[in-house]
């Protein structure tokens, strides 16, 4: 490896840290859990589809579009993609998400699930153009 | 055609090399798809980028348009075989951006960056291209949430691919098929 390689790696690492550090600090007050009233915004093809309240009780949500179906499962104040009939199954790999701004994306079906804090302090709108 | 004997023999060699490289790249893509990265706690959709080994080696030996042909062939064939046709657009966007960045760095920045640096830059460009295509289609920038993680994984996979290319280039240079393409 040459010196320029090291420089490139350093620049990329600093850029990654610059994105990560503010998220780490703001993460404390934006934690999920009981009484935090988080919601999951589901958009299909850029259009708003549903807003789901994240509860402790289990609930399943079917998202059926002309491209295929996705099944979301809400439990323990979080949400996960439970089933999808897309070929790559990447969306299932996102796992169980509980924190604001975390997302589940299903590119083949153009489905986007994003966690946001519920009504009131809605700073998320600054990020979604 | 007005090609002389040695010219047509070189054109044939280029075609053969592109064919072999794209076949290997597709196989590497299939092998890579069997490795469950997301089960290992990594970002879903993150890939090792083995196919990039062949693309970078092709840029090293052949002309830019040959490598571009390889990129398009590899992306189309992998999408057809793995059956993720709907995500073809995204991988094409990522591959093309990655190719452009690596090509420019190889032509202009060979003095500064080694093959490993070029490979890292290509890997990062691939990630950014895919995320950009995805956020355009989905009409939201919230997918960029995953950019920092992808940057870090891009460095790691880029280094691995870069070392593989270095060994491959030094081995292939000893084969007579590649002799006349050496610089």
UniProtKB/TrEMBL annotation, chain A:
It comes from the Bacteria. Pfam families: NusG_II. InterPro entries: NusG_2_sf. This is Uncharacterized protein.
From TrEMBL, chain B:
Keywords: Membrane, Transmembrane, Transmembrane helix. The chain crosses the membrane at residues 12-31, 37-62, 89-106, 113-137, 143-165. This is Heptaprenyl diphosphate synthase. It comes from Paenibacillus durus.
């Amino acid at each position: 490896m040459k010196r320029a390689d090291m420089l490139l790696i350093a620049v990329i690492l600093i850029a990654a840290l610059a994105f990560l550090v503010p998220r780490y600090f703001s993460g404390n007050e934006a934690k999920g859990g009981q009484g935090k009233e988080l919601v999951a915004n589901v958009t299909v093809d850029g259009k708003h589809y549903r807003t789901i309240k994240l509860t402790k009780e289990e609930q399943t949500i079917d998202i059926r579009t002309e491209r295929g179906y996705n099944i979301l499962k809400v439990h323990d104040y979080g949400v996960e993609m439970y089933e999808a009939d897309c070929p790559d199954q990447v969306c299932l790999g996102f796992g169980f998400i509980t924190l604001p701004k975390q997302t589940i994306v299903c590119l083949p079906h153009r489905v986007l699930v994003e966690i946001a804090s519920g009504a009131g302090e809605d700073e998320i709108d600054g990020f979604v153009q | 055609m007005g090609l002389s004997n040695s010219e047509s023999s070189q054109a044939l060699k280029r075609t053969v090399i592109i064919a072999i490289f794209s076949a290997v790249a597709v196989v590497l893509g299939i092998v890579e798809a069997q490795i469950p990265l997301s089960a290992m706690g990594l970002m879903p959709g993150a890939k090792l980028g083995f196919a990039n080994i062949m693309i970078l080696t092709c840029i090293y030996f052949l002309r830019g348009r040959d490598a571009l042909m390889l990129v398009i062939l590899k992306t189309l064939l992998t999408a057809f075989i793995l059956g993720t046709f709907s995500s073809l657009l995204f991988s094409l966007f990522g591959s093309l951006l990655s190719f452009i960045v690596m090509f420019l760095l190889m032509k202009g920045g060979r003095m500064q960056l080694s093959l490993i640096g070029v490979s890292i830059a290509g890997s990062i460009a691939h990630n950014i291209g895919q995320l950009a295509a995805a956020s355009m289609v989905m009409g939201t920038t919230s997918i960029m949430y995953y950019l920092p993680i992808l940057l870090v994984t891009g460095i790691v996979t880029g280094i691995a691919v870069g070392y593989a290319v270095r060994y491959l280039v030094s081995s292939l240079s000893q084969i007579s098929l590649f002799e006349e393409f050496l610089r």
